[in-house]
Amino acid sequence: MNAISTTRGKRPSNREMYHAVERRDAAYDGIFVVAVRTTGVFCRPSCPARKPLARNVEYYRAGRDALFAGYRPCKRCRPLDTNGRPPDWVRRLLDRVERSPDDRVSDTELRKMTIDPARARRYFQSHYGMTFQAYSRARRLGEALANIREGGRLSHVALDTGYQSESGFRDAFARVFGKPPGKSRAAEHVVTAMFESPVGPLLAGATDKGVCLLEFCERRALQKQIEAVQRRLGCAVVPGRHRLLDRLRSELDRYFDRRLRNFSVPLIYPGTPFQMRVWSELLKIPYGQTISYETLARRAGRPGAQRAVGTANGANRIAIVIPCHRVVNKDGKLGGYGGGLWRKQYFLELEQATRVGSNPLSYPTDRGREPVG
Predict the structure, then answer these.
(1) Which terminal CB of the chain, N or C, has fewer other CB atoms within 10 Å?
(2) Beta strands in 187-249 (DSSP E)
């Protein structure tokens, strides 16, 4: 029976929700999540895992609320995937580009794949800071740059990446990288990739010198952060693969799994002298601890400049790794956070729980987020 017609717009009862869990009824996915007290995990109603006893569960309207209550997402049904992993149609596009970076996917081809070109354009603009066609083109040219740096002949690289002529390839290459292919063998560029995470998709970027970007994809400031990276580093941003991104992905997985406290991946974070002092001080805050904006201002050499350090925090382009989430108000309240306060609270509770070896504790600001039932 359809969940919406059953509830007539009202939230389902505990009995109804438990019956949905027993049936693994996918119609209730997105209506609520079920949290299991004995395991500390929350799931979709349709999760294939063994069903818990009714007395051991509680229900929440959304995964975010279960996170606030100290539960962690199930690794089988991945209840946060609607935010943490690209939709299937996006995954198909990404897989196609990765399989054949030199292929051009036209709007006609997208429609044959039952994908609306406008929808693809909006999604990639929002999550990658560029349209799908620009993403594909940048991915193709990123492969070309890698081949050129490995000693590939220009004529061969142009043909291998789908260009009909060297001149067309040269023009496209120069527009993206700011210089012709022949002068780009030692050129630096930022390689980007999207990571799945329990707090939603993350866009990461790295050069050969270090990670320079880690940002929440749906954050409104994403495009400005990408532009700041381009401006500060003076090089193009292209999607692709990079050894430092692989290393960052591995470290993030361990961080979210409570198996890593200190990141070791190299970082580059150019900014104003004051911003860089603030970001350097952030890196000194121990895992599982917080400091106030007032303390951070003093440590950065600007006593009393709490507002200025707050602005510098907001301009941090490497979330999580440069832990601006560890700065709170003097009275202990969370303060601000560009990625959303719920994420800030999630990180603090995850770190404190790992440090003391217990389940995450709720903050006073958590009040009002009660279970559904």
Answers:
(1) N
(2) 190-195, 202-206, 211-216, 237-239
